[in-house]
């Protein structure tokens, strides 16, 4: 077994891993204290400050049950009411020791929800984890300024990364560029920012030499067509997903031609023009129900070689 040592006094997110011994084939705990996972298993880590976990038991009501990470959606519950109880709370005595599968509820329970705290997470804890222990990392909460460089510690084994680039420091694109094992990258902009945005042409140029990247998603951002043209340098890119205001079908066609001209297998290009929206974003979940705020695109263009 591999011991993942997280901060003992605060839960810095959720960790899940493939495990045939666990229900549904996946283990799932909070990222606090010591979490043991099978050697060599695929581990996903979602980073944010956890305030509490609550479970809903059935008494009727419509309550959509969020699914544990990587297990797929859980269908909505028949009409009625739901009674909630808190199963884990920050600051409770022995909070690290109480981190076990029971916090997600019993089989008869309808769902669980995770309440988020407001504090930023210091990513320095990453340096205390085995370098090849995490295969997918999502930064879904605020992080301490200057601590993003710690993500480079995961370079040997990190295959997937998702984060709000606009909210990080100037060094973030160069740190991502050094994660040469990445196969999937999801970058989110902050449409509420007027200046200082980092999901721009420079950022796209920095990531355009990632040797193993096959999937790239760009949501919002301040890049231009020139920045998108840099992505033709990605040698293994097979799927590019872009959602941002101001994108047009002609731009979709030009981007597709750029990629098809560089890669023999071609690439799927999806561009969507979105309605004006707040900083809720796709990745950040509501603190009470963990539901994601989805907004339908007003224009979509796709192309496959």
The geometry reads as elongated
> What share of residues is helical?
10-25%
Number of discrete domains = 2
Residue share in β-strands = 25-35%
Second-tier CATH architecture of the largest domain: Alpha-Beta Horseshoe
Distance between the termini: 44 Å
Q: Spell out the helices and strands N to C.
A: EEEEEEEEEEHEHEHEHEE
Q: Which stretches of 5+ consecutive residues score pLDDT under 50?
A: 60-77, 274-305
Provide mean pLDDT, rounded: 79
**How many individual β-strands?**
15
Walk across the major sheet and give the strand order: 3-2-5-9-10-11-12-13-14-15
Summed up, what is this model?
This protein has 305 residues and is mainly β.
Q: How would you explain this protein's 3D organization?
A:
By secondary structure, this protein is mostly beta strands. The protein folds into two domains: 106 residues, no CATH class; 145 residues, Leucine-rich repeat, LRR (right-handed beta-alpha superhelix) (Alpha-Beta Horseshoe). Helix content is 10%, strand content 28%. The protein contains four helices and 15 strands. A ten-stranded mixed β-sheet has the order 3-2-5-9-10-11-12-13-14-15, with helices on one face. It has a three-stranded antiparallel β-sheet with strand order 7-6-8, with no helix packed on it. The longest helix has 12 residues. The termini are far apart. The C terminus is likely disordered.
């Amino acid at each position: 077994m591999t011991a993942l040592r997280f901060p003992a006094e605060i839960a810095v997110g959720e960790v899940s891993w493939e495990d045939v011994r666990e229900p549904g084939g996946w283990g799932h705990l909070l990222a606090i204290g010591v979490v043991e996972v099978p050697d060599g298993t695929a581990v996903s880590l979602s980073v944010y400050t956890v305030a509490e976990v609550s479970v809903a038991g059935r008494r009727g009501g419509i309550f959509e049950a969020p699914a544990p990470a990587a297990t797929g959606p859980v269908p909505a519950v028949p009409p009625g009411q739901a009674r909630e109880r808190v199963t884990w709370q920050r600051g409770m005595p022995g909070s690290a020791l109480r981190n076990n599968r029971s916090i997600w509820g019993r089989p008869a329970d309808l769902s669980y929800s995770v309440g988020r705290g407001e504090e930023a997470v210091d990513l320095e804890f990453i340096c205390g984890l085995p370098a090849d222990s995490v295969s997918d990392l999502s930064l879904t909460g605020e992080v301490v300024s200057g601590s993003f460089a710690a993500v480079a510690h995961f370079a040997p084994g990190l295959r997937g990364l998702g984060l709000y680039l606009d909210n990080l420091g100037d060094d973030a694109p160069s740190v991502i560029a050094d994660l040469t094992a990445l196969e999937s990258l999801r970058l989110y902009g902050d449409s509420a920012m007027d200046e200082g945005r980092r999901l721009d042409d420079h950022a796209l140029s920095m990531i355009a030499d990632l040797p193993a990247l096959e999937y790239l998603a760009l949501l919002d951002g301040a890049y231009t067509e020139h920045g998108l043209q840099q992505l033709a340098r990605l040698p293994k890119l097979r799927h590019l997903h872009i959602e941002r205001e101001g994108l047009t079908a002609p731009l979709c066609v030009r981007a597709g031609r750029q990629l098809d001209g560089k890669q023999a297998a071609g690439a799927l290009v999806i561009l969507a023009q979105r309605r004006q929206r707040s900083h809720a974003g796709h990745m950040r979940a509501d603190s009470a129900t963990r539901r994601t705020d989805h907004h339908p695109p007003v224009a979509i263009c796709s192309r496959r070689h």
